[in-house]
Amino acid sequence: MFKKIAAAIIYTVLFVFLLLNCYAEKVNRDLSDSMIRLHIVANSNSTGDQALKYRVRDAVVGYMSEKAKELKNKGNAISFIRNNIREIEQVANSVLVKEGINEYATVSFGKYPFPSKRYGNIILPAGFYDALKIEIGEAKGENWWCVMFPPLCFTEDAKGELDEEYLNILKEELSDEEMKIIINDGEKEIPVEIKFKIVEIFQESKIKLTGLFRGLLAVE
Description:
It is globular and about 75 Å long.
């Protein structure tokens, strides 16, 4: 009898675990499908390299801000990035050349892991997101992140808040529940907070496991 009860408990726990994992995966997939993030990695954590990272950021954001109004959906944004990725790389490298830095910036587009991050009036849980990634030199320094589409990077609001136009872009792609999860209005209901934590915990665990497997493969 005890073995049957123990087995039932184990199966129930596993079932709940799988349900929560599926939920976390769906939310992350929907979020990733609705936005593109920008990820810049400095050469090192030296004062000079960190300052250089921000100058590269300013140049790339300045370049992209001129194009942002033409990008009405994520598909437009992806097409633009893929068609102009070498030009974006040139924009980043022009900063290094101007500064007389003997390093190169490499630009790639793909799906990369991100930690949980607040951006003004939205907060994104950890997970894997489509992103334009810029690696400067050895890329061993601290990161800088923002949301490239919808263009949170390019907002003129000092608080970095998405205005209604860009929130509407997200609303077209996300469910009402998912919008509640990412909106940072300081008044989240407890069930919404719990849902955010579920996504955050499961995705952070996935990121750690992915890093562990990659490390093991690298050793081999």
